[in-house]
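Hi everyone, sorry if this is the wrong subforum. Our group has a chain we'd like a structural model of before ordering constructs, and none of us has done structure prediction before. Sequence below.
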Amino acid sequence: MTSRQDRPSRQANTSRQANTSRQQSLDQAGLATRREVLGDDYVDAALSQVDDFSWPMQELVTRNCWNDIWNRPGLARPTRSLINIGMLVALNRPHELKVHLRGALNNGCSEEEIREVLLQCVPYCGFPAAIDGLRVAREVIAAYREEQDR
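Answer:
Right subforum, don't worry. Here is the predicted structure as tokens:
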């Protein structure tokens, strides 16, 4: 007979298997780009938290954003990253800004380029949005430097 204590580990194992199967069904080119830009740790953590309710969003993001947009010719990845920073500041999306700041650094954007984008946001998005973006960027850049020093 199965005890109640056995159920959570069995459910967790089933959930991990479902997530592995789901990941294999994702757009592979989009998933590869997502991993290259954001890093395996971030993508793995995001996908490990997926449930039936949120799975369709992961499919859309991976296909439409990370493949259909990020893999288009015409703009280099660093340019796309810098554009995203400006848009996310304008939209006041600090969580996504943090993710895409890290992606910008992974894509080879310099701290100076990131700072210039944040300064460019001032006349178009306002001082409060740009200052919040600068705060988030300082945090991300400090963590990135620390990781690079290891």
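For your construct planning: The two ends are 49 Å apart (CA to CA). The chain is about 80% helix and 0% strand.
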